[in-house]
Write a structure and sequence with these properties.
58% of the residues lie in helices and 0% in strands. With 55 residues, it is mainly alpha-helical. The chain starts with a helix and ends in a 7-residue tail after the last helix.
């Protein structure tokens, strides 16, 4: 039970931060689903490193 509670507690904030970073880079939130495919997390890492569109 403890592992499930920890995973749930980490998943929601991580998802929110990922979506916020993608939107900051000017991309729509569905790009976060790229992490569900193999090697998609690597592509997300590249997208997260893009400069912000807003100063």
């Amino acid at each position: 039970f403890g592992l499930f509670a920890w995973a749930t507690g980490i998943l929601i904030p991580s998802l929110a931060l990922s979506i916020r970073r993608l939107r900051d880079a000017g991309l729509p939130w569905p790009w976060v689903l790229l992490g569900l495919i193999p090697f998609g997390v690597i592509a997300l890492g590249v997208l997260w490193c893009q400069p912000s569109k807003y100063p």
